Amino acid sequence: MKILVLNCGSSSVKFQLFEIEHEEILAKGVVERIGSDEAAVRYKLRGRGKEDQVRKIKDHDVAISLVLGILMDPENGVIKDKSEIGGIGHRIVHGGQEFSSSTLITPEVKESVQACVTLAPLHIPSNMKGIEVAEKLLPGVPQVAVFDTAFYQSLPPEAYTYALPYSLCQKHQIRRYGFHGTSHNYVSRKAAKYMDQPVEKLKMITCHLGNGSSITAIDGGRAVETSMGFTPLEGLVMGTRCGDIDPAIITFLALEEDMNMMQIDSLLNKKSGMLGLTEKTNDFREIESEAENGDERCILALDIFCHRIKKYIGSYIAVLGGLDGLVFTAGIGENSHLVRSKVTSGLHNLGISLNPVMNVANAFDIGTGSVKVLVVPTNEELAIARDTRQILASLEHKTEKAISTV
C-alpha cells in the first residue's frame, strides 16, 4: 500500500509518499511560500537527485495538485495514477482534549478538529485546508488525522493542570497539552528497540531540540511530563520563543513599553529565544560559530539554552524516580555535539556521561554511564504513515468481519 503524508502549514505543504509494507520513501518534498508568484518547490523522487523549482502557486489546491503531478510525472514519477494512493495521513497540530490517538477522518472528526481552532488559530485552518483539498483531489481515499497533542493525553492531572481558577480552566479547556508528541513517541520506541527492552519497562527522557524545542518524561511508554504547555511557547528556550518566563513580565511590558497584547505575543513568539538573546540570528550553526570565535552574546545564549535543558532533565529524573535512557533528536539534538556535551556536563552522578569521540561523530549510542544516551533521528512522517496503515488495516478488518457475519 502507498500512503501519502501531508503536513500543511499556512503557506507550505510538506509531503512524503511511502510504500508502507517496506517503509520505503518513494518521494518527499516541500512547497513553500504558497500564495506567491515565486513559490519554492523542492523534492526528491526515488532513484533521482533533488529538484528545485520556482513557480506561481496561488493556494493549497494548486500546491497539492502540483504534488500529485510530481508523483505521477510520465517520465520520472513514482506512481502511474493517483488511484495507487491507498491512504492519506495528515499531521494535525492540535486535538484538544478529545483525541488521545490517531483517528480516521469523518465529518464528525472534522467538526471536532475545527472546534480546536481557538487553541491553535495559526495551525488548524491550514491543517483543515489540507484535508479538504485532499478530499477533493483524491475522492474516496481514506484519510487519517495524527495529532501532535495525542501522546500527552496520558499526562496525570497534577502535570497538566494549571493553578488558575478551576472553573476558568474547565470553561476554556486551559491545560497543558504538549506538542511534538509524534516525534517523542517515535524516538522513545526506537530507542527502546535499540536497548532491547519493551518500552513499557523503561523510564526515558526525550529531548526534541530544533527551532522549536521540547522535552518529555516517558514512563513505561506513556508521557508523564512535558515542557510545552497550553501553547508551544512554554518550556525550553527556542529559536524565537522565550520559553518559561515570569508571567508578570507581560503586565510589566504592557505598562512600561505601552505594548498591547498582540505586540507582546509577537515579541514572545517571534522575537525572543536565541534570536532575542543574540539580537542577530536564531540559526544554531551561526550561533555556535560566533560563540567559538568569542562572541559573548552567542556564548551566553548557548549557555542559557543548555542550562534550561539540563534543569528540565534533573526535574524529570525526579518525576520518573530514575532514568534508563536519555534521547536527543531533531535538528539540534541530532547534529550539535556541543549542545549535547554542555547539557550532559556534570551529570555523571546521575549516570549520564558521554564518549566524546562518539558524541562528536553524532553516533547513535554516545553514552558511557549507566543511563543510555542516544542520538535518534526523528521521523514524524514515517510515524504518521505507520499510524495511517494501522488504522486502515483495522478498518479493513472490521469490514471483512462485517461481511463474514452477513
Report on the structure:
This protein is α/β, with parallel strands linked by helices and 406 residues long. The protein contains 15 helices and 13 strands. The protein has helices spanning 60-71, 107-114, 124-137, 157-160, 166-172, 181-194, 248-256, 261-270, 273-278, 284-292, 296-320, 330-335, 337-344, 356-360, 380-404; strands spanning 2-8, 12-19, 24-32, 36-45, 50-57, 85-92, 103-104, 143-147, 203-208, 214-219, 222-226, 325-329, 372-375. The strands form 2 sheets. An 8-stranded mixed sheet has the order 5-4-3-2-1-6-8-7, with helices on both faces. Helix 11 (296-320) crosses helix 13. The longest helix is centred in the last third of the chain and has 25 residues, at 296-320.
